[in-house]
Backbone:
């Protein structure tokens, strides 16, 4: 029986569906689901209960070899890389339609695997993934070359060709969406793909593989190797037949991918890594309540497990007390930990016990460094069995403190006061990261100056986390290099070839 919109607002609907779910757990190589060569498996846990969700095939270097060989064979055959652009478009559009058809299954798998509230998955992640496949399908016949102006004795053409095999290494915080952000542009450009999902959240990637095959993506063009980063991820980064690594994850591992490229075949590497996003609220903000609402959502959405989470709240001194009071009230009203399968839940657990311990350790660090804990800071009552951390707020934070410098990747916000625009700029840029920033002001000149001077790849003015598929997403400094979304991403999965024809 087809689910209705009313069904999807019911906790019972999702719990009953969760009982029936039987996820695929094998690797997907050469168009077939297969066990790992070693037969090894690992457990993926439900973060809300810490119960075993599934035992998943544990791919390793040998499985990466098999997947890359299948991808390379498919690429060399031209079955996808030289398919007529309109035909390739048709396949990717069908992928988007299948994601819509299987939206509830995809949402449920990510909810069970990494703890994100089901309402966010249904309303944000899955529709965003559908849009990603649609957008990149539309770019396929827009990839163009050029004929340059040369001496009449010659004809010079510049063509664009796919790179070959692209290794996509994605994180656990947006499992389906990040897999889509990486795989869709690579496939749109005509490449073959080997996807390594995070070991914490591999299940939706395996359903995605089945849907791509059903849509008509030829055997070998899209492969999935589950496994640990230090094994399968490393093997992919070092592989001599992988032509590019498209990576989203920690800055530490992003650097390793660049090292692996240098140690192997000098493959291209794009990295979207950590962030420590400043939300800058000036005293001339036009609508403080709106700024507060965005600030709260910007740090506590997705449990703070977001690379561009607005964890640094830079507030002008004269506004600080009022802002903090309204922020606390809004947070208490908007974000309460709960069962991720309940559509009313706005905050789920963190992905693993290790991540929970890490975030709680940062909270202790903030207290030890002299910041004032004014909200949260512990495991919420009644949720000891899961990986929960209550929405947390520190005030009196100095930019030099650990909680103001390091990426926490949890629901921890730090209020840092500033005197004027110059000091706000210095504090905002006092970071190894430069992924995103937001600016709240009613003064046009101030907005332009700060947008120019803040070192970030994305700057929002009087909003936070807005945008569409045309907006390049990526950072400055140690937030990585390369961009996701946008047409530029497709071109980054191609290389140019100059063809000089002597007409003399």
Residues:
């Amino acid at each position: 029986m087809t689910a209705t919109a009313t069904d999807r607002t019911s906790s019972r609907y999702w719990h009953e569906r969760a009982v029936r779910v039987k996820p695929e757990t094998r690797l997907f190589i050469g168009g077939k689901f297969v066990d790992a060569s070693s037969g090894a498996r690992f457990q993926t846990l439900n973060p809300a209960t810490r119960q075993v969700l599934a035992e998943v095939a544990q791919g390793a270097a040998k499985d990466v070899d098999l997947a890359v060989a299948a991808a390379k064979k498919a690429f060399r055959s031209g079955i996808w890389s030289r398919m007529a652009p309109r035909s390739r478009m048709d396949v990717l559009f069908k992928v988007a339609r299948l994601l819509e058809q299987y939206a509830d299954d995809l949402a449920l798998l990510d909810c069970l695997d990494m703890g994100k509230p089901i309402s966010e998955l249904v309303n944000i992640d899955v529709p965003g993934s559908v849009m990603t496949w649609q957008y990149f399908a539309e770019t396929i016949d827009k990839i163009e070359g050029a004929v340059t102006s040369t001496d009449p004795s010659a004809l010079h053409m510049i063509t664009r060709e796919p790179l070959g095999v692209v290794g996509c290494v994605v994180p656990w915080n947006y499992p389906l969406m990040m897999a889509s952000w990486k795989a869709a542009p690579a496939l749109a450009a005509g490449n073959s793909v080997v996807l390594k999902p995070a070991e914490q959240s591999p299940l939706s990637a395996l359903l995605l593989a089945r849907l791509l095959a059903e849509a008509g993506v030829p055997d070998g063009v899209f492969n999935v190797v589950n496994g640990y980063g230090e094994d399968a991820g490393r093997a992919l980064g070092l592989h001599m037949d992988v032509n590019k690594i498209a990576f989203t994850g920690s800055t530490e591992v992003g650097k390793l991918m660049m090292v692996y490229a240098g140690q192997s075949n000098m493959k291209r590497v794009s990295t979207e890594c950590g962030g420590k996003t400043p939300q800058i609220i000036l005293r001339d903000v036009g609508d403080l309540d709106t700024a507060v609402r965005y600030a709260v959502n910007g740090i506590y959405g997705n449990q703070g497990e977001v690379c561009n989470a607005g964890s640094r709240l830079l507030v002008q001194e004269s506004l600080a007390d009022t802002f903090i009071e309204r922020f606390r009230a809004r947070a208490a009203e908007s974000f309460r930990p709960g069962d991720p399968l309940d559509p009313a839940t706005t905050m789920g657990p963190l992905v693993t016990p290790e991540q929970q311990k890490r975030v709680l350790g940062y909270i202790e660090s903030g207290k030890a460094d002299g910041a004032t804990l004014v909200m949260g800071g512990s495991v919420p009552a009644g949720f000891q069995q899961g990986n929960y951390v209550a929405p947390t707020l520190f005030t009196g934070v100095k930019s030099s403190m650990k909680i103001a410098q390091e990426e926490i990747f949890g629901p921890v916000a730090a209020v840092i006061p500033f005197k004027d625009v110059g000091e706000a700029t210095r504090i905002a840029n006092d970071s190894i990261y430069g992924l995103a920033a937001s600016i709240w002001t009613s003064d046009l000149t101030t907005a332009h100056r700060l947008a120019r001077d803040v070192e970030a790849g994305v700057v929002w003015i009087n909003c936070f986390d807005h945008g569409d598929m045309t907006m390049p997403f990526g950072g400055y400094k140690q937030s990585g290099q390369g961009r996701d979304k946008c047409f530029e991403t497709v071109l980054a999965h191609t290389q140019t070839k100059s063809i000089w024809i002597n007409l003399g």
